[in-house]
Amino acid sequence: MSNTRSYVPPSPGPRFVRRVPEGDTNERYVCDDCGHIHYINPKIVVGSVVAFEGRILLCRRAIEPRKGFWTLPAGFLEEHETPEEGARREAREEACATITIEALLAVYSVPRISQVQLMYRACLEKPEIFPGPESLEVDLFAWHKIPWDEAAFPSVHWALNHYWETKDKRVFAPFVNPEGQSGNAFSMKRP
Amino acid sequence: MSNTRSYVPPSPGPRFVRRVPEGDTNERYVCDDCGHIHYINPKIVVGSVVAFEGRILLCRRAIEPRKGFWTLPAGFLEEHETPEEGARREAREEACATITIEALLAVYSVPRISQVQLMYRACLEKPEIFPGPESLEVDLFAWHKIPWDEAAFPSVHWALNHYWETKDKRVFAPFVNPEGQSGNAFSMKRP
Lengths: 191, 191
Fold this sequence. Notes:
2 copies of one chain form a homodimer. The first copy, chain A, is an alpha+beta fold. Chain A is 14% helix and 32% strand. Chain A has 2 helices and 10 strands. In chain A, strands 4, 5, 6, 7, 8, 9 and 10 form a 7-stranded mixed beta sheet that branches. In chain A, strands 1-2-3 form a 3-stranded antiparallel beta sheet, with no helix packed on it. The first copy, chain A, is elongated, with a radius of gyration of 18 Å. In chain A, 39% of the residues are buried. At the A-B interface, strand 3, helix 1 and strand 8 of A face strand 3, helix 1 and strand 8 of B.
């Protein structure tokens, strides 16, 4: 894995300086004005591969990046949510879908941008789906009809293939990034 | 699960006000002075149950909270780390231990304080362990000698018991919080 430790993210604001706060061992962004420490904690993305009678739910993105491309319902975990609650909320927000989570499918990581993705395997309770504000359209795809070339992100491919490997298994260990692949962002909506 | 959505965390600084930034749907802390948005993202704790020839590595805490009590090597995931790298770093920092990660043991969550814990099952490469700056002492305990009453946090109990259930299994699904338990913080060193 490439050494990314020397990467310094962009300053969160003009008054922030990079220094080691008292009692810490790492350099952080500190506001030179009021002393506020801007911790850049890794971010958690939660999402799911949602099946209904052998078909898979995909959402066509209404927002950048990758507007117009197909993705899985996924997004940033919010405050005070469990990961499962977050994955259910994303399915509801992006596809008005009510899902039941079955298993943790994968833990992908994107260290370059400090992102950890918890992807679940889920099923749709009823086939009523509608595009939410971040989707242009939503649909259920038979496996051989999945628009692979129009997938928004490589990790959509990963999660779909990992789903396929485990769809008939009840117990399995969650997957990680495919060998040698350092991951990619699911979306960029939060700095 | 109790409704924690109405909880508003303490302001990160005197100039921050609570409002919905443009293009967002949730209220955030925004600096009234420079416009910096203080996103409170859930935090990721990474740690491990580390075994060596049937004995388990525990660290006696040199820092509050729960100073003097026994815990697993665990702490906050840092920027640009994968969760596995973070768990290895924590074992190195807290017990000077070189570990090999075998499996994801559990994903616990503490929604009250927006914390997700990724706990791994690992083994020690060599039985040379020494207390790091955050540990008073480190030791390898036979199962029947584990100081249960002096465990720093309930999730130390959870992870040890989940380890015990799976120690002879190669493939298993990671555990979540025990039924009805909403979790607890592993440490409090990062706001």
